[in-house]
Amino acid sequence: MDRITTSGRRARGLVVSAGLLAVALAAAPGTAFAAGAPDPAPASASTSAAVREAGDLARLDAPGERRPQLTASPVAASAVAGSSLERGQTLASGDALQSPNGRFQLSMEKDGELLLVKAPNRLNSEPYVITGLAFGDPGSRLVLQTDGNLVLYGVDGTVFEDFGTAGSAAQSLVVQDDGNVVLYSSSGVVLNFDTAQQEALFAGGTLLPGEQLVSGGTTLVMQSDGNLVLYQNGARFQTGTFVAGSAAVVQDDGNVVVYSPSGQPLYQTGSRSDFAVLVVSDGEFRVFDLAGDAVTSLFGTAWGTDVVLPGADLLPGDRRTSANGNLLILQEDGNLVEYANGRPVFQTGTAADFGVMQPDGNFVLYQFTSGDSDQVRPVFQTFTGGNPGSRLVVQRDTNLVVYTQAGRAVYSRFR
User: Fold this and answer.
1) pLDDT per residue over 152-208, tens digit each?
2) H/E element holding 200?
3) In a 3-state reduction of DSSP, which class is residue 89?
């Protein structure tokens, strides 16, 4: 899986937007493409300044309030100490193991369920039910027997689940820092529960650096560099929030916000709901309300359709197509052209090397200067900066429109 980083070009025909934006930021001032026109405001490796200037994210909790430091909260110690259950030990009812980093907890619930929960967000993350066969049998216990077998027993000794590891020389059941629960012997893995995968995050939950939501081949990663990225056969979406240590929060008001470690908001979905859940599936991630209705479709539009999403870039040959077949393509000669029924209806007349739907809301085409890949100049822009999270849409009526997160049009090629 190709990771988006703060520099360099992408593989599989995808350019790392942050690297291009960093190059754009380094462009000499005063290189606007038209006389008297202001320079575009490229998103830098840290987008927090642009977000602060925009003002759109200034009030996410209360006026002047910033989110507190986002760190994991350790859970209370259980009778079985540490992150592992050793051969001959029992995880009794009410006991729990926790990962060394304090983020994950394997709990023998008092109702008989064996659950893995995300410790800092115990009430706000989707628990992974390792087994519910003993549900309704208070006093159930998990035993790693001296023969290496892992067994779930009821209070009266009834075997609710035999994990079939007898004679395996299993030594330790471990809760790892990545949230995976693994049974190890001295020679390697005996049983992998594959619990590191979680596909939903509920209101109040936090996706900390290095954590991810996974569904099938789709992964939403809160990278350690601060960028929130959606992957499916390569990168499909990014927030462009390159502030190391940032975290994504599903707020109680339904808004999903990326915060810097100091609590500065860097990005938001703009969704609103009394209850919200962030769900990853089928190459998309969306925010749903309690009724199961999507309250934002910003992240629900797959690349390669009719939208250039925030943080996305265009290389020569990249295209977007409306539902009725209107085609927007950055041609190999660097000209951005829209075709309807095979005939051009719009062009920028540029020789651009790449285009970016910047996280600040401005769509810009850039050209490398004098063959130097470290210096660029803008050759076309929509002048829509100050609208974080905006997207460029190819419409059925052949119009090209930049829409804000609230759905307000701030650019139209018809105007």
Assistant:
1) 999 899 998 999 999 999 999 999 987 889 999 999 999 998 777 677 888 888 888
2) strand 200-202
3) coil
* Residue extents of the structural domains in the chain: 45-70+198-296, 84-192
Residue for token pair 């997207």: 391
DSSP string, 110-172: TTS-EEEEEGGGTTTB--EEEE-TTTT-TT-EEEE-TTS-EEEE-TTS-EEEE-S-TTS-EEE
Structure-model confidence comparison of residues 23 and 62, the more confident one = 23
Query: Which has the minimum average pLDDT: 3-12, 183-192, 288-297, 385-394?
Result: 3-12
278 residue type, one letter:
L
Biggest CA pair distance of the chain: 85
Average pLDDT (77-90) is 76
Tally: H helices and E strands in the chain: 2, 36
CATH class of 45-70+198-296: mainly beta
Q: How far apart (Å, rounded) are the C-alpha atoms in residues 262 and 195? A: 30
d(CA 129, CA 150): 16
Q: Return the pLDDT at 136.
A: 66
Alpha helix ranges (H) inside 239-381: none
The CATH architecture one would assign to domain 84-192 is Orthogonal Prism (2.90)
User: What's the token pair of residue 208?
Assistant: 């900390």
User: Where do we find the tokens 């075997």?
Assistant: 159
Select, from the ranges 72-86, 121-135, 325-339, the one with the highest average predicted confidence (pLDDT). Answer: 325-339
DSSP 252: T
Tell me if residue 99 falls in helix, strand or coil: coil
Instruction: Of 393, 401, 264, 366, give the one whose Cα is nearest residue 21.
Output: 366
Instruction: Look up residue 198 and give its DSSP letter.
Output: -
When mean pLDDT is compared across 13-27, 188-202, 319-333, the lowest value belongs to: 13-27
CA distance 67 to 258: 10
Comparing CA positions, the residue from 283, 145, 308 lying closest to residue 213 is: 283
The pLDDT of residue 9 is: 26
Q: Cα–Cα distance between 217 and 214 in angstroms, integer?
A: 7
